[in-house]
Amino acid sequence: MPRPVHLLPAGHRWQPVAGVTLLGDAAHLMAPAGEGANLAMLDGAELAQKLAAQPGDMAAPLLAYETALFARSGAAAAQSERILRLCFDDDAPHSLVRFFTGMRDAGPAPEV
């Protein structure tokens, strides 16, 4: 059964609204790519940190949070779009096989 995949384009931003912001899946509408829970937890931590640093002020912390959110979520959204294309473009599943073959041939990742 076909299921729609809803996403916003990588780099999408919204205009600030006084006293309101988004976090988690509401802020990162993208195809599944294994980043949702990580982004949601980071959003919550960053928003709490910014609000706690400036008690009594909502505007500056929300603007700082959204600026950081847009900067870091763009890469995750772009990766999500690439994975979506690998899985569902006209060339799929061949594109997905090439992707994993390339990763296999590259060998193990260096230890950190």
Question: How are the SSEs ordered, and which strands pair?
Answer:
Elements: H1 36-53, H2 59-88, H3 94-106
If you had to describe this structure to a student in words, what would you say it looks like?
This protein is mainly α. It has a domain at 31-106. It contains 3 helices and no strands. The chain has helices spanning 36-53, 59-88, 94-106. The longest helix has 30 residues, at 59-88. The model has no long low-confidence stretch (mean pLDDT 87).
Distance between the termini: 42 Å
The Rg value, from CA coordinates, equals 18 Å
Mean of residue pLDDT values: 87
Global geometry: elongated
Strand tally, please? 0
Q: Structural class, please?
A: mainly alpha
Low-confidence stretches: none
Could you spell the SSE succession in H and E letters?
HHH
Strand content: under 5%
Helix content: 40-55%
In DSSP terms (H or I, runs of 4 or more residues), the helix count works out at 3
Largest sheet: none
Keywords:
single chain; 112 residues; mainly alpha; 3 helices
Quick summary:
It is built from three helices and no strands. With 112 residues, it is an all-alpha fold.
